[in-house]
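Render this sequence as a predicted structure.
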Amino acid sequence: MIVVGAGVIGTASAHYLSQAGVRVTLIDQGDVGSGTSSRCDGNVLAIDKDPGFDSQMARVSQDLLHELAERLPPIEYRRPGSYLVCDNLDEVAMAAEWVRRQQEEGLPFVFLDDAAIHHHLPDLADDVPGGLFCGSDSTLNPLLYTAELARAARQQGSRVYTHAKVASLELNHGQIRGVRLHDGTLIEGDMVVAATGVWTPDLLNPLGLEVPIQPRKGHLLVSGKGPLFGNAKVMEFGYLMSKFGRERVAPADAMQYGVALVYEPTASHNFLLGSSREFVGLDTRSNPDVVKAIARRAMRFYPGMQESTIIRSYAGLRPWTPDHFPIVSPVGVVPGLIVAAGHEGDGIGLAAVTGRLVADFVLGRPPIVDPTPLRWNRFSEQGGALHV
């Protein structure tokens, strides 16, 4: 079978398939991990997932990743947990309710009042009034993770083709026959996994399938080596508002560019700062105004960061869907086609559960999570093609 896209979702799918004995051809238009998987941070989070299916799926993926990290070569994997910090008392009340709901789902969430949050995070601004902690959250190097998944798949018998752009999916009497490359080469296979992120609509539209995946741009800043502000990921509670399009109180530039604090220390003893959320097409150029907005927002929570050095910034494209769930599903009207795309900013964290679920579909095994919320036709009442 064929997996199109050698980002973290495609390589995880190839890994789990080849591990089960399936002969896989993995194809990418660039290098392994050269798309969104190389332009992101290493979040593996449950803390920012809606209580219920969303957070439970994230927790399953965290457990799978923990197993993977023991088998793969080092990927800078750490499991320090993560924090959400509040900007005002209204957010504190919402955070307490968020924790209550997540605890009801059995997740390891803890509410932290004013004294507790400053005990855990002493570098925070004095007026931060509270927050919460999730103990299951982890972090890793996303490009290393993707590369090691591809290497493991290759060792298990997969073939990997890079710089091989797929021009079209080929059908035979309505069923998948394989893929045709831009140079005219036909690679045959009776099943295809479209793990192509923001480029999935371009691949599927010629078949009459309109998938509602859009690129949502996000910036990250990288510091030089120097003092860290704690060893765990910290985000502001307003990140949830920005992610899900809910109302929040923030400065004008933060609202304009969807900016919310994300602080991530790395194994290299520098840190990443984010994040932003914009719909600007496929533009991955760094915008100085967004960079400034991210820096200002970070200093609101960490005044000491004004002494830090930022050495570069970059931007990537999150594959966004209207309900913020990925599409991980066989496409019933095109036998042999599976879509695994639309993870927005959760591709790194949900790669393991997605790859395992793809393998479950292919092998006819009971799915590791209920795939119903991820079904390909949920955006269409008719159950036919997907419609925005």
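Summary. Residues 381-388 have pLDDT under 50 and may be disordered. The CA atoms of residues 28 and 162 lie 5 Å apart.
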